[in-house]
Amino acid sequence: MAEVNFGSDGDFSDLSMIYKVNANLANELGNLCQRTLSMVFKNCDKAVPENVGPFTAEDEVLLDSARGLREKAGKAISEQAIQKYVEAMVGMIWETNKYIDNMAPWALKKTDPERMATVLYVIMEVLRYSAILYQPLIPDSANKILDQLTVPQDERSFAYLEDAYRIKGGAPMPKPEGVFPRIDVPTEELIET
């Protein structure tokens, strides 16, 4: 969906699809989910962080970007531009990966556990927005992410992309599991390219 304008002709290649799945889903979204949720599970008593401090300017910028994602996605759909919808989703995950690298919650664990919990909570909230909006594109995988984020089944519609709704602090979490396994490219495919 990211490669071809809706309603237009385009080239399809199994290899290109595998590269997109590995890059955008396994490496970026999947890795972000796995490392965030594993840190929460290990360092926050196997529950959604509850001792969350005040949000910093960096936190608010990322959360505002997530809050604006619904409008971007809606505009893309109204224009029948599914590739723009995908681009908005991938862009949000890139932004969140940059945030986690800059905030380094693994280092905060030793120096400022409350800040670590806040950073992890912010990422979980961005993942909630993203997974809800990913449901039309990758419904099973998006719902696996929402399960791991402890988002109730009845709070997964677009109506819950309002600031009044957030992940409940203290909710017990299941042990994180990978959602997007990497797809191995057969050796003969690599030789041909």
Q: How is this structure best described in words?
A:
The longest helix is centred in the first third of the chain and has 30 residues, at 14-43. The chain has one domain (14-177): Isoleucyl-tRNA Synthetase, Domain 1. The chain has 193 residues and is mainly alpha-helical. Helices cover 62% and strands 0% of the residues. The protein starts with 13 loop residues before the first helix and ends with a helix. The protein is globular, with a radius of gyration of 17 Å.
Outline the secondary-structure elements.
Blueprint: H1 14-43, H2 57-78, H3 82-103, H4 105-111, H5 113-134, H6 139-148, H7 187-192
Quick description:
By secondary structure, the chain is mainly alpha-helical.
Question: What's the CATH C level?
Answer: Mainly Alpha
Q: In the CATH classification, which architecture applies?
A: Orthogonal Bundle
Mean pLDDT: 86
Q: Could you list the spans in which at least 5 consecutive residues all have pLDDT below 50?
A: none
Shape: globular
Question: What are its keywords?
Answer:
193 residues, mainly alpha, Isoleucyl-tRNA Synthetase, Domain 1
